[in-house]
């Protein structure tokens, strides 16, 4: 920091990049030279010819005396230049290859490995002639016993890479003699390293040469005195099982594997770690050649590994445990973790039919293991286990509850990745095929789910909380509407109002919309809608009003257009008068979607109100940022084409989708009405004639159109019906609607975020005795299905703001008015 040092480190600003690099490599400090080498890929892209002519020679000189940091930087820069393809392969080999080969045997192991990684990447692109002359021929001398151990280790890795570049004949003539020599090396590190390269070599030389050359070497190495060599041979054999035929597996490999397993408990724990990790692949590869006795032995061996280390007493203080015991316990944890990883493979090994007898107790131990990594791994595998058990999935209901209640959020996070699929299997699998009995098999599910959400909410891991709320969207397929309303829906509303994390609030909002979409009681739906409007849309906090607009966006995606227009259109556009600029700004971004819910001419009066609000914003807005967004939004709104009541070719798919949404919403109303009638008639048997007379006496329309959009005014007393058979059909559907009506797989729904098709809907069948098939879903329909559907019409005596569809309907002066309109022309 003295003036002399500053003067010495100062570089003339007028120098070009090339001149500055040459100067710093010649006269600068080491840190400046390292900076130049790190910048070498940029110089190569900018001026490759001058860099190769002037800078690269200076780099070679600097590397002769360079320290570790400069060497590591050079290895990375050379690799980057190769990946950038700044120069041709021929030029690269001519300019850089010798520098790489020169530093392969650097005395520092880290530097040597860095240059080796660069060389292995270079080998991938070099032509055969260059590889033969520059790398393979010198390798013959470097692989000799007279060379250093490091030189022979490097030779092993290079040989493993070269086998993919030459044909089988060249490998047999030039490479295999070196491989055999290194497999018989006097140093166990070299034998182990060469053994691990035999897998690559086997893939290059083909099956016949592998059997005649590689397999004998592996068998010999599996009996090596060095434990690391035996371990390498075992792992290579397991990885090459697919290459060998049944005779080789049963006569040659199986005895080696048996011997290795028998001696593993007497050997180092690291061998047990590797064995436990490869055991699933091993049992799969040798499946079919085991005798019943051998099959049982391998199964018992696996069970023993699953409880390894748990038999010891754990009442001691960790501070008093000797370090070697602590290290041993860590290795035992790794063994049990690997066993949890291989558990699905072991189910296949014993056959899922024998799970309860053979593996249930082991699964129970893994789910209750005292160590988090073990429980985390089994939670990841839980979905695979559920799929394999299929109809026997009921056997692991209690373990699902246990993992949901796990004290570690890591375990919960791993489990909820596939929670919808797991719950679907739980609700559709099991001993009973009757839907009504499925829920009784999971009595603790709802308390476990609510407790899991509360633990996630109380932690600082908001991403886990967000993911959990998103996955709860599957609950309408699993549990009843009332359970969702009393145990989950109110909780979603609380999170929206009180949580401080925006992604969590949005996830809660979306899930609440899904619950609303599938809620089956009109009174509950009204209550939720009213809460959304009053406490969010008209809330005192601007933050709540912003969340109301998020909710409106989800409503538009999930529900039908008529539903949004009826209950949320007016409360949304009223926020154009909001005192907070951020709220008005967010509404401007939402206005194109709001306009897309309108149909002409039925919603002409709503279009007038929308245009009047936009005019007021243009004329009265004082915030310059909001005004700029309003102007852009006006242009976008002007370009939009309005949807018509009748189907248009351009909007056919969207209109069909919206029609299905309306039909589903109306069906929910019908089912609720039918359930009420059924409850009124419970306790006294009613003949078909009496039931038919009651139906005729009720004030219901004669039929429900199947293929046209339905728009019903505010009164909900009208229920379409046609005959006694349809009435019975609806009653049957109503009884099982909670669990059976929407039985499309949640995993499929989750994929529907970009596709377009129609939503699933039930329509009355011709015979009245069967359900119609499910219609395929789209992204919008998934969002719709994920929400509790409120029907397109509710009772007229509600206090909710609503807007009637149709040009002849009057509009409440508080909620709408007559404004100028400029309806756009649409081609029919």
From TrEMBL:
Disordered: region residues: 675-732, 753-772, 780-828
Cited SUPFAM superfamilies: ARM repeat (SSF48371)
Keyword annotations: Coiled coil, Cytoplasm, Phosphoprotein, Repeat
Keyword Phosphoprotein: yes
HEAT repeats: 175-212, 214-252
Molecular function via GO: protein phosphatase regulator activity
Extent of the signal sequence: none
Subcellular location(s) per record: Cytoplasm
Chain intervals with Low complexity compositional bias: 786-804
GO cellular component, one term: cytosol
UniProt feature, compositional bias: Basic and acidic residues: 675-699
Start-end of Polar residues biased regions: 713-723, 805-820
Subunit relationships: Serine/threonine-protein phosphatase 4 (PP4) occurs in different assemblies of the catalytic and one or more regulatory subunits. Component of the PP4 complex PPP4C-PPP4R4.
PANTHER family: PROTEIN PHOSPHATASE 4 REGULATORY SUBUNIT 4 PPP4R4, SERINE_THREONINE-PROTEIN PHOSPHATASE 4 REGULATORY SUBUNIT 4
Function: Putative regulatory subunit of serine/threonine-protein phosphatase 4.
Name listed for the protein in its UniProt record: Serine/threonine-protein phosphatase 4 regulatory subunit 4
